[in-house]
Structures are given as C-alpha cells and as structure tokens.
Amino acid sequence: MKAKKEQFPFIPEVRLFHDKKKCKRFMRKHFESEREFMGDEFAQTWYERGVAVILFPFDRDWHDDAALLCHEAYHAILWHFEYLGEDAPGEEFVAYGIQSISKSLFEAHEKWKVKRRRTNRKGRKCQHAD
To answer: What is the pTM of this model?
Structure first.
C-alpha cells in the first residue's frame, strides 16, 4: 500500500506492506539488489534510490503499532538523507521527516486494519490488504 506523501521535497516515497510475499515481489521489481528478510515476527525497513519499503506484519494494540511505525519512519528518513548526500541533517528536518512518514504510515496501516476487520466480519478468511 502506498503511503501518502506529504508536500515536503525531502520525504522519500514510502511503501507499507503487511504481507511478506507482496513485499518481496515489489522489491524484486523495483530494487536492484536482493534484500534479506529477518523473519515473520519483525518489522523491517529497506531503502533504495528514494523509496522506503516497510514490512509490518502486525495487528496489535494501536499504541504498540504506532510506536514501531515511528521507529521504522526514523530509519527511512535517515537513509533518505544519506541518499541525498546530507551527512548532518538539521534536527527540525529530521523531525518533520519522521512526522510526515509516520502520519502516512499510520493512515496506510489504519486503512489496512479497517479492511481486515471488514473482511473478518463477513466470515471469510482474513486476507492481507496490501
């Protein structure tokens, strides 16, 4: 699911996946190098050429999800600044970057959770909505 991009020129494109297979498929298509996956119980972030890909295989308490999504947003913005050649980004730029990426991730994650709940109420097997 493509997270919305705020109107800051220094924010990377962000893709949030809840399904490992869909994440791998996207990365094979868009990334030049093969990436390693740690396991199903980890949130993971990869970055290449202006695109941050986040695998988030969780549906837990909203506070836990929000905290971990902020953690992954931090990785994404720092790798993006490194890609842009910015060795020492200002604190305010980093803060705005984390805010923007986190907001996009929260919106994408909530949309996935709502779709997942709707699918569960219909009595069908739960499907990931990436």
So the answer is: 0.77
Do 54 and 17 form a contact (C-beta atoms < 8 A)? yes
pLDDT tens figures, 74-98: 999 999 999 989 989 999 989 999 9
Sequential DSSP letters for the chain: -BPPPPS-TTPPEEEEES-HHHHHHHHHHH-SS------TT--EEEEETTEEEEE------HHHHHHHHHHHHHHHHHHHHHHTT-SS--HHHHHHHHHHHHHHHHHHHHHHHHHHHHHHHTTSPP----
Q: At what angle do helices 62-83 and 91-121 cross, to 10 degrees?
A: 140
- The total number of residues shown for the chain amounts to 130
Nearest residue to 101 via CA among 130, 71, 129, 128: 71
